Model the fold of this input.
Amino acid sequence: MRKRLDLFHREQSVQLADECFNAMVADFLCRRKLTGSADSFAKACNVQDLTDGNAFLALYKILGELEEGKLNSLETWCKMNRARLKELQSDLELRLISFQFVMLVRQDNINEAVILIRSNFLKNYPEQEENAKGLLSVLLHPSASLDVLAQEKVCKQEGFVIHLI
Done:
């Protein structure tokens, strides 16, 4: 009986190792933007549940839109993953909001910029009130043009640095 159990555990370990390896191969294909091949491989090996194919598809969609100057997918992704981003102490959403704020100010949409800070930044990140004030202080310094260096200088004085995409 003991020998049978040992054999059973060994077979399970080999099967698990094969599944893990196949999942890693599928993820490798995804990283190389071969998502169709990765999906086919994962299905053939029955490891779809162990791969991150959907995450890579979302990533490539976001990157494609960023190259076109669009932020919609990134904004949606940040909202959907806000809890996880906070858990990881990521400032990605804050950086996105900061970037959107700067773009609105550059377009002279001051009211929309202030609403953005109030509705997104302060509502979802109340602990970041000082950083929000730093962003809003850009509006109080008419001598500071909205080029990148001036924005960073003003925001650094308030203890917050805008990282532009």
